[in-house]
Please model this.
Amino acid sequence: MLRQASQERIKLVTLMAFISMPLSGFVTDIYLPSFPAMARNLGVDERDIQLTLTTYLLSYGISQLFIGSILDSIGRYRPRLLALFILLLSSMAITYTDSVFIICLWRAIQGIAVSILVVATRALFADLYQGERLKNYLSYFTIVWSCGPILAPFLGGYLEKMFNWKANFYFLAFYAGALLVFELAFSGESIAQTKRVNFRDNIFVYKEMLQNKLFILGILVLGISYSIVMLFNITGPFIIENTFHFTSVTIGYCTLLLGFSWGIGGFIAKKRMDLEFDQRVWKPLAVQLLAIIALLAVSSVYQSIYVMVGFAFLIHIVSGVLFTSFFTSSMLFFPANAGTAGGLMGGLVYIITSVASSLVSISGEVASQGDLAWRYLFFAILLLLVVFSMSRLQKKA
Model:
């Protein structure tokens, strides 16, 4: 039992848990710079390649809805081992196929595996820590997780240029394999007492969570904030390569820079956690909306990769601020059911993101920074409406 292990071992497992957090970002983002190359190599349309990401996000989101309660019932350790093995196997399998349909199937399986890892890791902290220490660790979650979106596309761009797009999935297999070896050697079960699977109790817990309006509205903020970031991730590579005529390495540098913006937003949010709701939320939202309007205005007269990425940097900082702020507060709603709450929250966030990605894909070609700016504006307005509803609800409370 990990809870009864020495403090040195618990610290080591905690450190490795943080190291494992960026894995979900790597699985999502490492092959983004390779989108145009994959489309050419596989002889398919851009939308077909985007579908591999949408499939993953949808699988990742839906599976998290159920994974949390299962992990509360059977523990965290063995599911993590199984998930890491599946991720290793599926990453290798993708390198041996040239079918987009088969890639989508494997990506759906990866979504399930990564959801197990993410929910189990969140719950591990709630198992081992309490009070202010737990709150402090939770506030670091999105900061550490952002290392994935920061580094993955940068690394993926170079891997694609030096080898080909399949090298990205070889790297994922290596990452998962290294974590699997550590888990087998040092980790263990963290939950003090598992809970019997009781569907009636599970339904009651889910009902209680779904009826908490502030919890659900917070999840909507998380989903829309992350959708704003994913908007650039699924459209930016094509704009950079097809419109501005830069290579996959440049795509990697751009997404690296925007990954830093997400991390900066996380640090800013951590410093602002003690502020009142209105102070903590409305000022960043106003900055984001003004940046999007400015990008629209500039796009009507001037198109440049530097302008597009510069404005996106500021827009994504605000998304990072909002995501970290609402993630920390949402995880503290139901500490007694941390696995279930984390799974429900993560699941709904990625379902929202996958729906948003689908809307972007069917909304028409995104070929310029102006097209990108209009879609930024759409999501920003949705975000304003949700936050306005939360503000009114809090004032009534």
Remarks:
- The chain has 16 helices and no strands.
- Residues 38 and 165 are 7 Å apart (CA to CA).
- The radius of gyration is 20 Å.
